[in-house]
């Protein structure tokens, strides 16, 4: 018999606002014909929706005296943990939207004018001539964020799957929309889609096994079933492993990371910025909730897997980043290494991870968006002075510190934050994560992590050296131009200030993270 | 107002940031904003002071909690301010003199294209100095301590297009680092002994730790103080620091920052009270520096360097007083206050002279300026009378008290310290009168292109205001022991002790020595001809002129062995450490090249990798765990 679900719409308000705005955005696409007006309308709508939802979520946070509320029994909770992730995702989305809307001084945006036209076809040339624009990226962004927010608040394996697809499908499309190197972009998107479908299948298989063992798909139900049958875990453990693989794929952990360098490099850089920060945050949010509200009794069976994957991820991410010559690819591998650092927090399943992981993702996400925002501004320059695509070869960044010290300084700050140097947010983030691991008895893992971050510092600092200390003879200087839009500058400034602030004055954010360290079971 | 004291730091800091960030857009009005920020800080400070005056002596200690700075495990560091009579005294000195010097700089730096940056740095200094004196813990004090060091470095090297000025800035910075290490060591020792760095906790538990520990802490604090306050043996940077613009010398290197060491000692009175050894070393350092500074001052022909030597010497007096313990703390701060006024006034006077004489600093090319610059002459004259200790001018009230206190005690100490202070007073009279007569009296020995003229009002007004302080402040504060009573909640009540010589005898001796010193200077430099080039020096003059060869000593004792040690280390680093690192690095790169091949770009191999990994994980569980 079907019973109508008992939903608490007020509790869902942040998610509803975002998804509703996405739907309105689709209507705007259909109604507003003038491209410039449409872009302005979409940007406004996106910013209003994300910031409005952020305010609502913040109010919910402030007015919730206890851990939070159950939004729909068995399916969704809006506890402080979920609200913390949602606020973070909304901030990333707002910053991402600003990057989406930025364009070069010549008026060129990051996206192809017509996604449906084959690369190099007459249709594409016609679209370029008519200055068409795919402002659909804004509604797509909103749908993705809505999915991610749901991802962070669900307490049911099947609902998690739905949310996963809701945020993945728009991302696949957005990756394919790069204006330049379109074939590469479409290839990256296709790979991302195929592997995403593949991992979804693995995840669903895992859920099926769990359902077979527990006869329920809710986190709490699976937890209860595991506790009730300590001797018979034959279905639970493989199921749990397959479920975790599905999440680790989104997190970008080795060996499930293969999509990320290709997709990061292929996607339009604003999309890379948003995706690198937000997808990882959403995946980490789901991982935290699954581990600590459903699978923690399997600690003994699962932690060797977490340890192995964490170590392999840190080593491979760091070592392969060392040999990259493309800056977007280098940051892609750096983000793989960061997935490993995030997994370190789960060593021993210490509840400290409930606070450490959100804080880490905040510091990582801000620096990531900032760094990719910087990348969008460094452009190749043709002989006739026209500004071309992004200059992503590392050699092209030599001497940037002299050309634009502020921009190069901001980039250096983000890199130092990635490396975890004190007085940047990244240091506090790493400290929290390592502290959580040590609390759970995972000091050998922390040792590996510290060694990996030392090795990782090499390629971060190498770029800083390249920007500031490498002398390039005048005639051999690569033709590079710094071309920026006020929006990108705003994003860089916000992320710079946040990175320094969280590094010097982390107390308030840490307090919030510690308040978020309680999970509701959702029953 | 007391709760708003955080504004004292926030306003100048914000102004400084705005001035730097706005860039050239703020060139037209930036200096007025800097002045406004400093004035605002003074208004807040004065308001807090007035409110505090309305309170009972016991309740004048006011803690302002700002925020929890670091909170991790057992370590919690709160950032808070401590507003008490001592800190508010400094606040008033820094903001009042600071505001006057901001005003003065508007005129002095008028033709400098980087005037806005200069004001940004000045504001930064004011903010950092106020943080230093208002902090409620050694850690926060250290932030201010480093902040003033940074501002001092930036301002000494403000005209860094001249290499020797940049070198002077570096020297100040490096020497100050030595002192900073002392403060860091002191904080480490305190943290080990007390588990906290807040004044409240440390001072409450001084009785619980051994005297040896307290002595170690005290000596480490003294190292810090000698660095910042240019005391022996870390005094060598102050003379070179005169490379900075003169308002900087007046504010930072005479009135405020260099007195931070004295503040540190007096603030740590609770520690020094319990360790006689450390106190004795403080007094000895003060006595040595006060004589050394005076002797160097006698031989300098550069007006700013002579004033710098005098600053060193006067701070030596304050150190000596602080080292005397409870009877001296209040007088140390009292002299610090009066000195802040008359020395800043004289530096501004020197700046005014330089302004009118094409930036000439050689006193042998001055002379007879009293007619050309009447205001400067009169205001400088008041400062001169004050530093000589002529009654009833300011210096008399404060310096005489220090000399009297130095004569208090038993054994050899009162005689050594007392006589040092007494002789110092005579030497001070000599070199300051020499400076005064060479500059303003005698015959004109100007270079041909010099056309001395009085400075604009923005410069003369601050000089006049400060000279009023030079004239009257000491008398005002000494009457009825106003100042010592005011500081009593912080420094404690001092029992009255009789000096080994009767007070009138000491006073008479002092005045006689001062008269002799000034008279001698008048005969040599006021009445007699002063040659425009320095005559061949005697051995003593040579030693003094070269700052007692402190630089050469430093070079021989510290720099050379240091250079050799670092060279050896660099060699070892290149051979051993770099070898290991580079070996690891190239190994990792090879590994990277290998692993990179897995990123083939083909989806089928990616999918296969995932499948193999999943199969491997499951197989491991099935075979191993279950």
Automatic annotation (TrEMBL), chain A:
E.C. no: 7.1.1.-
GO molecular function: NADH dehydrogenase (quinone) (non-electrogenic) activity
Protein keywords: Cell membrane, Membrane, NAD, Oxidoreductase, Quinone, Translocase, Transmembrane, Transmembrane helix, Transport
First-listed, main subcellular location of the protein, grouped into a coarse class: membrane
Pfam families linked to this entry: Proton_antipo_M
Regions that span the bilayer: 12-32, 44-63, 83-102, 134-152, 158-178, 190-213, 233-259, 271-292, 304-323, 330-350, 356-375, 406-429, 441-469, 490-510
Subcellular location: Cell membrane; Endomembrane system; Membrane
Domain named NADH:quinone oxidoreductase/Mrp antiporter transmembrane: residues: 155-453
Statement: the UniProt record of this protein carries the keyword Transmembrane helix: yes
Function comment: NDH-1 shuttles electrons from NADH, via FMN and iron-sulfur (Fe-S) centers, to quinones in the respiratory chain. The immediate electron acceptor for the enzyme in this species is believed to be a menaquinone. Couples the redox reaction to proton translocation (for every two electrons transferred, four hydrogen ions are translocated across the cytoplasmic membrane), and thus conserves the redox energy in a proton gradient.
Subunit structure and binding partners: NDH-1 is composed of 14 different subunits. Subunits NuoA, H, J, K, L, M, N constitute the membrane sector of the complex.
Protein name (record): NADH-quinone oxidoreductase subunit N
UniProtKB/TrEMBL annotation, chain B:
Membrane topology category: Multi-pass membrane protein
Domain of life of the organism encoding this protein: Bacteria
Listed transmembrane segments: 6-23, 35-54, 86-106, 118-135, 141-160, 181-199, 248-266, 278-299, 315-334, 369-390, 415-437, 457-480, 500-523, 606-625
A Pfam family reported for this protein in Swiss-Prot or TrEMBL: Proton_antipo_M
Keyword Membrane: yes
Broad class of where this protein is predominantly found: membrane
Keyword Transmembrane helix: yes
UniProt keyword annotations, A-Z: Membrane, Transmembrane, Transmembrane helix
Limits of the NADH:quinone oxidoreductase/Mrp antiporter transmembrane domain: 135-421
Gene3D superfamilies xref list: 1.20.5.2700
Signal sequence, start to end: none
Subcellular location: Endomembrane system; Membrane
NADH-Ubiquinone oxidoreductase (complex I) chain 5 N-terminal domain ranges (all copies): 69-119
UniProt-recorded name of the protein: NADH-quinone oxidoreductase subunit L
Species name: Demequina zhanjiangensis
The organism's taxonomic lineage, starting at the top: Bacteria, Bacillati, Actinomycetota, Actinomycetes, Micrococcales
Gene: nuoL
């Amino acid at each position: 018999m079907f019973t109508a679900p008992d939903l608490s719409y007020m509790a869902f308000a942040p998610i509803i606002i975002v998804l509703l705005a996405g739907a309105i955005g689709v209507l705007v696409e259909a109604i507003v014909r003038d491209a410039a007006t449409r872009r302005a309308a979409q940007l406004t709508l996106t910013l209003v929706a994300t910031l409005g939802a952020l305010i609502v979520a913040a109010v919910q946070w402030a007015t919730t005296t206890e851990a939070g509320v159950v939004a729909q029994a068995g399916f969704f909770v809006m506890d402080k943990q979920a609200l913390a992730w949602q606020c973070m995702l909304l901030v990333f989305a707002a910053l991402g939207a600003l990057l989406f809307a930025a364009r070069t001084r010549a008026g060129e945006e990051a996206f192809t004018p017509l996604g449906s036209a084959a690369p190099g076809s007459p249709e594409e040339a016609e679209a370029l001539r008519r200055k068409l624009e795919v402002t659909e990226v804004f509604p797509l962004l909103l749908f993705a964020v809505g999915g991610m927010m749901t991802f962070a608040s669900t307490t049911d394996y099947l609902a998690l799957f739905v949310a996963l697809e809701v945020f993945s499908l728009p991302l696949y499309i957005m990756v394919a929309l790069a204006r330049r190197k379109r074939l590469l972009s479409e290839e990256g998107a296709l790979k991302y889609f195929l592997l995403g479908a593949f991992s979804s299948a693995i995840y669903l298989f895992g859920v099926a096994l769990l359902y077979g063992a527990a006869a329920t798909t809710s986190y709490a139900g699976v937890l209860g079933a595991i506790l009730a049958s300590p001797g018979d875990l034959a279905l639970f453990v493989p199921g749990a492993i397959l479920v975790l693989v599905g999440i680790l794929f989104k997190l970008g952990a080795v060996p499930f990371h293969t999509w990320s360098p290709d997709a990061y490099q292929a996607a339009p850089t604003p999309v890379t910025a948003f995706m690198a920060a937000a997808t990882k945050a959403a995946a980490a949010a789901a991982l935290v909730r699954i581990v600590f509200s459903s699978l923690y009794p399997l600690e003994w069976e699962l932690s060797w897997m977490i340890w192995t994957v964490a170590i392999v991820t840190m080593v491979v991410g760091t070592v392969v980043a060392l040999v990259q010559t493309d800056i977007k690819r280098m940051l892609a591998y750096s983000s793989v290494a960061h997935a490993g650092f995030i997994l370190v927090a789960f060593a021993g399943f210490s509840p400290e991870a409930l606070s450490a992981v959100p804080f880490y993702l905040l510091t990582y996400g801000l620096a990531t968006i900032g760094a990719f925002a910087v990348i969008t501004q460094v452009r190749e320059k043709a002989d006739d002075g026209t500004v071309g695509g992004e200059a992503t070869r590392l050699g092209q960044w030599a001497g940037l510190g002299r050309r634009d010290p502020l921009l190069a300084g901001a980039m250096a700050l983000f890199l130092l934050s990635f490396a975890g140097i004190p007085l940047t947010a990244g240091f506090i983030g790493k400290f929290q994560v390592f502290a959580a691991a040590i609390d759970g008895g995972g000091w050998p893992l922390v040792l590996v992590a510290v060694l990996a971050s030392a090795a990782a510092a090499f390629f971060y600092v190498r770029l800083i050296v390249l920007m500031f200390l490498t002398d390039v003879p005048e005639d051999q200087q690569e033709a590079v131009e710094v071309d920026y839009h006020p929006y990108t500058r705003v994003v860089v400034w916000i992320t710079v200030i946040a990175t320094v602030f969280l590094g010097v004055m982390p107390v308030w954010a840490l307090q919030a993270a510690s308040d978020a360290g309680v999970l509701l079971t959702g029953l | 107002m007391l709760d708003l004291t955080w504004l004292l730091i926030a306003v100048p800091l914000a102004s400084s940031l705005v001035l730097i960030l706005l860039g050239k857009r703020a060139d037209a009005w930036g200096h007025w904003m800097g002045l406004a920020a400093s004035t605002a800080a003074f208004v807040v400070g004065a308001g807090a002071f007035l409110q505090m005056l309305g309170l009972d002596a016991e309740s004048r200690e006011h803690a302002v909690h700002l925020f929890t700075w670091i909170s991790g495990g057992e370590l919690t560091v709160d950032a808070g301010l401590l507003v008490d009579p001592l800190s508010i005294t400094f606040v008033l000195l820094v903001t009042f003199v600071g505001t006057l010097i901001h005003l003065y700089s508007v005129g002095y730096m008028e033709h400098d294209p980087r005037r806005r940056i200069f004001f940004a740095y000045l504001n930064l200094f004011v903010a950092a100095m106020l943080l230093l004196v208002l902090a409620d813990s050694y850690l926060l004090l250290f932030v201010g301590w480093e902040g003033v060091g940074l501002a001092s470095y930036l301002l000494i090297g403000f005209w860094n297009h001249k290499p020797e000025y940049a070198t002077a800035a570096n020297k100040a910075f490096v020497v100050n680092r030595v002192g900073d290490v002392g403060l860091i060591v002191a904080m480490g020792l305190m943290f080990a002994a007390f588990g906290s760095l807040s004044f409240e906790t440390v001072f409450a538990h001084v009785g619980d730790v051994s005297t040896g520990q307290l002595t170690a802490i005290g000596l480490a604090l003294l190292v810090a103080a000698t660095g910042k306050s240019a005391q022996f043996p870390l005094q060598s940077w102050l003379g070179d620091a005169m490379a900075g613009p003169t308002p900087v010398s007046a504010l930072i290197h005479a009135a405020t920052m260099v007195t931070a060491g004295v503040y540190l000692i007096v603030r740590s009175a609770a520690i020094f009270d319990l360790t006689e050894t450390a106190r004795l070393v403080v007094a000895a350092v003060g006595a040595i520096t006060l004589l050394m500074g005076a002797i160097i001052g006698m031989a300098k022909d550069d007006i700013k360097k002579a004033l710098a030597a005098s600053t060193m010497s006067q701070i030596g007096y304050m150190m000596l007083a602080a080292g005397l313990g409870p009877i001296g703390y209040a007088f140390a701060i009292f002299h610090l206050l009066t000195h802040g006024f008359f020395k800043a006034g004289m530096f501004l006077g020197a700046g005014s002279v330089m302004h009118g004489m094409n930036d000439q600093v050689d006193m042998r090319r001055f002379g007879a300026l009293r007619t050309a610059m009447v205001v400067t002459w009169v205001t400088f004259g008041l400062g001169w009378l004050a530093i000589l200790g002529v009654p009833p001018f300011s210096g008399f009230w404060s310096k005489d008290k220090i000399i009297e206190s130095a004569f208090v005690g038993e054994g050899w100490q009162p005689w050594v310290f007392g006589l040092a202070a007494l002789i110092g007073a005579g030497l001070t009279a000599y070199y300051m009168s020499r400076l005064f007569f060479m500059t303003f009296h005698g015959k004109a020995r100007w270079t041909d292109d010099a056309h001395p003229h009085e400075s604009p009002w923005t410069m003369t007004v601050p000089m006049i205001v400060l000279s009023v302080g030079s004239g009257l402040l000491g008398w005002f504060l000494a009457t009825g022991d106003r100042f010592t009573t005011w500081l009593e909640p912080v420094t404690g009540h001092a029992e009255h002790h009789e000096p080994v010589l009767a007070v009138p005898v000491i006073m008479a001796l002092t005045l006689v020595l001062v008269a002799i010193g000034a008279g001698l200077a008048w005969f040599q430099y006021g009445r007699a001809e002063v040659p425009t080039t320095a005559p061949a020096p005697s051995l003593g003059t040579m030693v003094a002129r070269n700052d007692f060869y402190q630089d050469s000593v430093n070079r021989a004792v510290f720099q050379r062995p240091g250079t050799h040690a670092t060279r050896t280390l660099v060699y070892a680093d290149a051979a051993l450490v770099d070898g290991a690192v580079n070996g690891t690095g190239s190994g990792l790169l090879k590994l990277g090249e290998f692993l990179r091949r897995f990123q083939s770009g083909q989806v089928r191999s990616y999918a296969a990798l995932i499948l193999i990994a999943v199969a491997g994980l499951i197989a491991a569980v099935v075979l191993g765990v279950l």
